[in-house]
Write a structure and sequence with these properties.
Elements lengths: L1 H16 L2 H5 L2 E8 L7 E2 L1 H14 L4 E13 L3 E13 L5 E16 L2 E10 L14
Parallel strand pairs: 1-6
Antiparallel strand pairs: 1-2, 3-4, 4-5, 5-6
Length: about 140
């Protein structure tokens, strides 16, 4: 579905540009996020905005390049689901790669006023049974 694919591109651009307003515009006011970093969940856009603002600020002059792989979308008239593998690659101002990590991501969308908004995001990575460490590379 072209509209959902467009949201993926807007997400990638917003992260790279560290554009908080563009990033938050992808999400519904009443969203619920199950993130894998620091907290079990975020309820509502203000809580999510605070987390994203801290993330973008923590990058300093560097940026995160986001890529999606194995994107699968299922859409009805007013609800849609997307699952994918997502990679965040931290790069310097000169474009040099510093580090990267991968997660599994699920987005659930609703259509409001002809626009799709993310109402739920769930990110995860598997945990190695032996070491109990999160596996951040496929």
């Amino acid at each position: 579905m072209k509209q959902i694919e467009g949201l993926i591109e807007r997400y990638k651009q917003a992260v790279f540009q560290k554009d908080l307003e563009a990033f938050c515009s992808l999400y519904d006011e009443n969203l619920r996020v199950f993130d894998m970093w620091q907290r079990w969940s975020y309820s509502g856009l203000p809580a999510w905005r605070d987390m994203v603002q801290g993330w973008f600020a923590s990058l300093g002059p560097n940026r995160d390049v986001v890529t999606f792989d194995d994107v699968q979308i299922r859409a009805g008239e007013d609800m849609a689901l997307m699952t994918a593998f997502i990679r965040f690659t931290n790069v310097t101002e000169k474009g040099e790669e510093l580090r990267s990590l991968e997660e599994r991501i699920t987005w659930i969308f609703v259509k409001k006023d002809q626009a799709w908004k993310i109402i739920h995001q769930h990110s995860s990575s598997p945990i190695d049974f032996g070491s109990m460490k999160v596996i951040l590379q496929r």
